[in-house]
Each structure stands twice: as structure tokens, then as C-alpha cells.
Amino acid sequence: MALWLIILFTSLLSFVISAVSGKWLVPFLHKLKFGQPIKVKDGPEWHAKKQGTPTMGGFMFIISTVISSLAGCLAYRHWAELDSLDTAATNKFFIVISVIVFSLLFGFIGFIDDFTKVVRKNNNGLTAIQKIILQTIFSVGFLFALHIFGGEKTTINLGFWESPSLGIFYYILMFAVIIYLTNAVNLTDGVDGLCGSVTFTAMLIFTVCCSILIETELSCFTMALAGGCLGFLIWNLNPAKCFMGDTGSMFLGAAVTAVGLVLHNHLLLILVSLVYIIEALSVVIQVGYFKITKKKYGEGRRIFKMTPIHHHFEMSKWSEYKIVIVFSLAGAVFGILGIALILAF
Questions:
Q1: Is the pTM of the predicted complex or chain greater than 0.85?
Q2: Could you tell me the residue ranges of all domains in the chain?
Q3: Which of 80, 129, 153, 217 has the fewest other C-beta atoms within 10 Å?
Q4: b/e for 304-314, b at 16 or more Cβ within 10 A?
Q5: Helices in 190-308 by DSSP H: which ranges?
Q6: Average pLDDT of the chain?
Q7: Residue 14's closest CA among 74, 64, 82, 48?
Q8: Are 146 and 153 in contact (CB under 8 A)?
Q9: What does the DSSP 8-state code read for residue 124?
Q10: Interval 64-90: pLDDT, tens
């Protein structure tokens, strides 16, 4: 009982810090004129009215998550009277620290991107090459930490089947997973409240999985992020008073990916992240089909009205609220399936 009180307190603390910090951060961003530049080609034309909405609001849940998850971990270690000489317990603590640092570093990439955009007053931030270089450096660092503190498992775990050890190829594959999934989460941030809501749902699912797999300290992080996202949604639901920016979405992408890799259940990670995966996949399909048809017919054709796929539904006259609710419910259904598979195997 005391353990769950610690976890719930962690979430509540994060929610309060995130929600209350908006009272200061949103006016501050307005004062600095850190408004989001909007390109009509990047979304439906009616998104133009969102021009100038403060960005970098992701700092709300970033700050709340870091403070609350560390407080929760320390409270748990004190309550459980964990011995500092217990290598296994110490490694679990350092894994959480690694997840936090990794998420912060990706958030830093997003911050540079956001800051460049607002300074230039256009939607051109870091180049793709610059992003990939930074993402590569930080991803390799996290995978090294995972190897040191998380054990040396190099198998693909699908619950009902586990592959033989892949050695170095495991880390190469997980590097590709990190790059794809972190950028997929970033693409999901295109409708007010969408990325925050889907990630809130994902973190609740991960918390249940952490409980089943006895990853208590990691659950402090997942619940802290869930609470932080919920507090941020007060400011981000339609009509958004503030956007999370790449600062927030890159932090969330790294957090989702890192938690999934730490739990070492790759099917669970796929299911919990399926909404993000579909979002990015819709872009890949659209671009690929356009290029193929342009080469074949002389003009490019499209499968979706606009991508990422949440814009397709916007163009189909879905309200932003409907998109947020449907996508979040889909994430919950996929996540519950993941929980069921963990319990089954």
C-alpha cells in the first residue's frame, strides 16, 4: 500500500508542478515572443490561425518529470531500505537516471530546433543531418548505459518467443528503433493535445507493466511523466494556449523508447507505440507512393489527404478533440493487449 502511495504521490506532484508552472511559463514565452511559426503546407490551412502560439511548453512536463521521478525514486529507496551495496538495486536506480538523462538530451535537441525556429521566425530549425548526428551520439550513449546497468541481454523478446543472442547486432537494431520511434513521437505532435494525451496513455500502460515486471523505480518515472503530461494538457488542449514544441516531443519520444527498451519486451514496446508508429508510417507510405506514381504517370498521387495521418482525419472534418480521443483510446486498446500478453507469457 505504501509503495502505491509513493507512486501516486509522484504522479500528483508532477501534475501540480506541470500545471502550475504554466501560469508562469506561458506569459514568459509570450513576453519573449517565442511563438510557433506555422507553414500551411505542414498542416491544414486553418492551422494558420495558430501562428504565434507560444512554443517550448514542453518545459512544463520536463521539469515536473525530472523533479518528481527523482523524489519518488529516493522516497521508494528510503521506504524499502535498499542497501547501497546491493548491485542489482543500485543498477536499477542508475537505469532510471540514464532514462532521465537520455530524455533530457533529446529534449535538448528539440530545444535547439525550437530556438532556431523562433529566432529565424520561420519553420526551419536544425537540418536533418544535424539532428541525426546529435541523435546518434546520444542514442549510442544510452545503449552503452543500458548495457552496463541493464544487463547484457541482446535478444529480441516478443513474449511468446525470444530470439537467440544477437550480440552487437542487437544494439544496431535498437539504435534504428530509437531513431524511428523518437521521430515518430515528434510527428504525432500536430494537433492540440494529441501527443500529450497519447503519451499519457502510454505511460499509464507502462506503469502497469512495470508493476508486473517489478520495475518499481522505473514506474516512478512513468507515473511522473503521466502526471506531467496531464498537467500540460490543461494548457495544450484545443484551443492550445501553448505548444510543447520539439523540446517536449523529442523528450517524450526518448522517454517512451527508453522505457520500452529497459523493460526488454519488444512486442510491448511496439503495441504501446503503435499510434506513433502508424503516424510515421503514414508519412513513409505517402512519400513513397507519391514518388512511385510520379515516375510512372508523370504526376505524383496520394493515398491520404495529408500526412501525418492525424491531418488526414482533420481534412476529413474530424475535430481536434475527436482525433485526440480516438487516437488515445486506440493507444489504450493496443496497450491493454500488451499487458495481456505479458500476463499470458
A1: yes
A2: 2-344
A3: 129
A4: bebbbbbbbbb
A5: 194-212, 216-236, 245-263, 266-272, 274-297
A6: 93
A7: 64
A8: no
A9: -
A10: 999 999 999 999 988 887 766 677 888
